[in-house]
Write a structure and sequence with these properties.
heterodimer, A: 447 residues, mainly alpha, Formate dehydrogenase/DMSO reductase fold, two-stranded antiparallel sheet, globular, B: 288 residues, alpha+beta, Alpha-Beta Plaits, 2 domains, two-stranded antiparallel ribbon
Chain lengths: 447, 288
């Protein structure tokens, strides 16, 4: 993490930043089109009325869990070896949860009215609970990160008492952050899981599944970012730490698969159509590939971190982390889209889709209807929903992911969140932070 | 208290779609938006029964907002744009408040909510709002001020649905779908009044709610379609007399060139001689 290494890779760094900025610009351009024309530029219609945006939102909430495990759990359970990456993990949580809050905006038909959530909240709405808990989590992550950084700065300047009090505060906040983080994922699950209208969602296991999958993706993000930062010299993390995280990733993937498995068997064994049909749609319906890809990726990621010979290598860890991140993203998609495909009341001619375009002509319905727009034939009714994101949806989603990547990259580069492996023997009165590494004083000055 | 409800007699509904069209006109619904639809419960296509003739069955299911007492949409709306009016239990949407998150559409088990995905479009050449003219604000003081529950000029990006024609009901006029139903299959009234026509009809007709197992407790009821009348025993020997093809059906059959392929007429039926038609199977009836 020395500055010589940094300057050696300057051009690569700026190229990467430019690439991300380009993606952000693309997303902003796509969003401007959507703002000008409405959500009709998406492929969402009245049957599949939620899509990529909500999946992305749930995914971002999930990947914020990495900060919880590493920084809060490190403090609460006194796991010393994670101390060196706790600030990076906290930064990831902060960025992820901020982008989760942001990711709701493109999904709104009237984004300008989002302020009503704060001025006219309906307290029975899980969405209001979620916004509340997300902003609480955001505030806690922010305060925790600031305290961690200022504590280190105080220590670098020799103000040991300030350092001790700050660290004590960090530890105290971690005790609050842990339940808040658990609630964040549970409430996000309850947005879906409390709805009787979607049998696929309506299971008490959804909150535990969301927590497990959030931990999978959050931990994967921590592994991904720290391993890559290690590779490019932005961080110096012991291989031991990364291998430990990889092992934990395997355990949590197992827990996640166990929860999914018990959910599936509870639906399949009684063989009641009401329980099975949503699962049939999920695994054998038009979007079967979402669920199967997710299961396969989960097992591949598990295999990568389960084999003791290979899990110690950074490339394996990064690959497993990527698979885990994509797996959870597919889980979000497979939860959202197939749940809408077959409405509970599904009789011909079906549901009006809200526009005159995009519907499918009913087969065998021997009536020809001339569409209003001849270049865009279609009827306004569909029996079952179809959905595939348009380029605008993809661009906005990629743009939001690029914003997250940009914030993380710049944060690691310019915020004093890094730890050097040297000087880690410094003593401290706080027992759990005894192994806390000393920060590079030069970084403090630049910050 | 008043609790406005609607009762649809499915044994009377003829599937003429008048209510759907009337609703679209009165509420100036943009193209692609239907607050009220008439579904066919039977085969895979509209107006198509299930089964093989004559063992067929079909009924219509007019579907609009069920005005649930335990309304999932009201509970999920983050900003209280969808609310249940205290004075008569109508579930209404405030066009000025809705943020367009569509959580209510995810929460509604009946799929009766619809969204303005783009700028509302109307039939080309009709540049004026049909139906009710002007904005309508909820007069119920308990609903809060400035609740825009109907507007002919739809904003983009908001959810809308059947209001039981709140702008008519509030001045003592029935919803338009009630008024236009040619067979009187729709009854509207106060569910809290045990002597109202709707209450007594619900009792007498053994009316049911849609998806009652979900516990949403709709204020909309349906009298069952008496499907048993149209079920024919597989043996065909004891076919009830009303299943004998009427003279009309015989006339139709002659016009289209014979009975529907696969049709086995019940014994004793008057069957016209089969007329061979190109491209269609000739009937294979065993009748006289």
């Amino acid at each position: 993490m020395s500055s010589e290494q940094k300057s050696g890779s300057h051009w690569r760094f700026y190229l990467f930043i430019a690439f991300l900025v380009a993606l952000v610009v693309l997303g902003a351009y796509a969003w401007s089109i959507q703002l000008g024309n409405g959500l009709i530029v998406t492929d969402m219609r009245d049957v599949v009325s939620w899509g990529l945006y909500i999946s992305l939102f749930a995914w971002f909430v999930g990947i914020s869990a990495g900060g919880l495990i590493v920084s809060s759990a490190a403090a609460v359970f006194g796991i010393r070896q994670w101390q060196p990456i706790s600030k990076v993990a906290n930064l990831l949580a902060l960025v992820a949860i901020a982008l989760a809050a942001f990711a709701i905006l493109p999904d709104l038909g009237q984004p300008g009215r989002v302020i009503y959530i704060f001025t006219n909240p309906n307290l029975s709405s899980p969405l209001v609970w979620d916004v509340t808990i997300i902003f609480t989590y955001l505030a806690i992550s922010f305060v925790e990160l600031v305290l961690m950084i200022t504590a280190d700065r105080a220590r670098a300047r020799g103000k040991e008492s300030t350092y001790v009090s700050r660290e004590r505060l960090v530890r105290g906040i971690a005790f609050v952050a842990l339940p808040v983080a658990v609630l964040t994922h549970s409430i996000t699950a309850w947005i879906f899981g409390l709805q009787i209208s979607r049998p696929l969602w309506n299971t008490a296991l959804l909150a535990p599944i969301f927590l497990a999958s959030a931990l999978v993706s959050g931990l994967a993000l921590v592994i991904f970012v720290t391993a890559l930062s290690n590779r490019f010299g932005a961080l110096k993390v012991d291989t031991e730490v990364l291998t430990g995280l990889a092992k934990l990733l395997g355990v949590i993937i197992l827990v996640d698969l166990f929860l999914l498995g018990s959910e599936y068997i509870t639906a399949v064994w009684p063989a009641t159509p009401a329980e099975i049909s949503p699962l049939t749609t999920q695994f054998f319906g038009p979007y079967w590939w979402l669920a199967w890809t997710q299961i396969v990726l989960a097992f591949v990621a598990l295999a990568l971190v389960a084999v003791p010979r290979t899990r110690g290598f950074a490339p394996t860890q990064v690959l497993a982390a990527i698979f885990a991140l994509v797996e959870v993203f597919f889980y979000r998609l497979e939860l959202v889209i197939p749940a809408f495909v077959n409405p509970l009341v599904q009789y011909p001619p079906g549901t009006s889709i809200g526009t005159t375009t995009g519907g499918t002509v009913l087969s065998g319905f021997g009536v020809s209807v001339s569409p209003v727009d001849p270049s865009n034939p279609g009827l306004s009714f569909v029996l079952s929903g179809t959905y595939f994101p348009t380029w605008i949806e993809w661009s906005i989603a990629v743009g939001i992911v690029a914003v997250a990547a940009l914030l993380i990259t710049l944060g690691i580069r310019y915020l004093p969140v890094r730890e050097g492996a040297e000087g880690s023997a410094a003593g401290s009165t706080i027992q759990w932070s005894g192994s806390r590494a000393k920060r590079d004083p030069g970084e403090t000055a630049s910050a | 208290m008043t609790k406005l409800g609607m009762l649809i007699d499915l044994s009377r509904c003829v599937g003429c779609q008048s209510c759907a069209v009337a609703c679209k006109v009165e509420n100036n619904e943009p193209l692609g938006i239907w607050w009220n639809r008439v579904l066919t419960v039977g085969g895979p296509n509209p107006d198509q029964p299930s089964g093989d003739f004559p063992n067929v069955q079909m009924h219509y299911l007019p579907l609009n907002c069920q005005q649930c007492e335990n309304a999932p949409c009201v509970k999920v709306c983050p900003v209280g744009a969808t609310y249940k009016r205290e004075s008569d239990g109508l579930v209404l949407v405030d066009f000025d408040r809705c943020i367009g998150c569509r959580y209510c559409m995810a929460a509604c088990p009946y799929g009766v909510r619809t969204f303005n995905w783009g700028e509302p479009e109307y039939t080309p050449g009709i540049s004026f709002p049909v139906g009710h003219q002007g904005d309508y604000f909820d007069p119920d003081p308990t609903s809060g001020p400035n609740r825009l529950v109907y507007t002919p000029n739809r904003p983009r990006g908001v959810v809308e649905k059947c209001t039981y024609c709140v702008q008519r009901v509030d001045v003592g006029v029935e919803p338009f779908c009630i008024q236009v139903c040619p067979v009187g299959a729709r009854i509207f009234g106060d569910l809290d009044d045990p002597n109202s026509i709707i209450s007594t009809s619900i009792q007498a007709g053994n009316a049911q709610q849609l998806l009652p197992e979900l516990g949403t407790n709709p204020q909309q009821y349906f009298i069952p379609p008496y499907v048993q009348k149209t079920v024919v025993p597989a043996t065909g020997n004891s076919a009830p007399s009303e299943l004998v093809p009427s003279e009309d059906l015989v006339a139709v059959a002659e016009e289209v060139g014979g009975y529907i392929p696969g049709f086995t007429p019940p014994s004793g039926a008057i069957v016209p001689p089969p007329v061979p038609v190109a491209g269609s199977q000739s009937s294979d009836e065993e009748g006289p």
